[in-house]
Every structure is written in structure tokens, then in C-alpha cells.
């Protein structure tokens, strides 16, 4: 159950990162509100998952999910470039998440 909670925390991290981007420096109220709510949910779920999972594993996986998810949103929604080096970096983050899961 802790892993599912951590996955949900990571998904909320992706949402708040995207909402922060589209809030245009907190000048748009709805994206700013979405960011604040999903940020709180993400942190609460991370804290809950950390009751069972080791700190280093939980935090690294949470940030990895957020980083990869935000990277994908950037590519698919915001039209950011998918260069070979950026794709390699994303693959390395993914391999780190998988290894941390296997090691736990």
C-alpha cells in the first residue's frame, strides 16, 4: 500500500509542477489554487508513505516520478524538445527509480 501511496504522491507532484508552470508566476488564480491543493496532497501522501518506506527510497522515487512525469508533460503538452541527451537523462532517472524499488 505504501508504494501505491507513493505513486499517487508522485502523480500529484506532476500536477502541481504543471499547474505552477501555467500559473504564470502565480498571476492566474485557478492554476495557482490547483498547484497549492495538489502540492499539499502530494506532501501528505509522501509523508504517509514514509511511515513504511525508507526515507532515501521514498524521497528519491517521489522526486523521480515527478521529474519524469513533468518531463513527459513538457514534451507532450508544452512542446519542449526531445533531444537524444534529454531522453538519455530521463532513461537514467527511470533506471534509478526501478533500481531503488528492486532494492527495497
From TrEMBL:
Leader sequence residues: none
Subcellular location(s) of the protein: Cell membrane
Transmembrane regions: 29-47, 59-78, 84-103
Membrane topology type: Multi-pass membrane protein
Keyword tags: Cell membrane, Membrane, Transmembrane, Transmembrane helix, Transport
Recorded family membership: Belongs to the drug/metabolite transporter (DMT) superfamily. Small multidrug resistance (SMR) (TC 2.A.7.1) family. Gdx/SugE subfamily.
PANTHER family: GUANIDINIUM EXPORTER (PTHR30561:SF0), SMR FAMILY PROTON-DEPENDENT DRUG EFFLUX TRANSPORTER SUGE (PTHR30561)
Protein name per its UniProtKB record: Guanidinium exporter
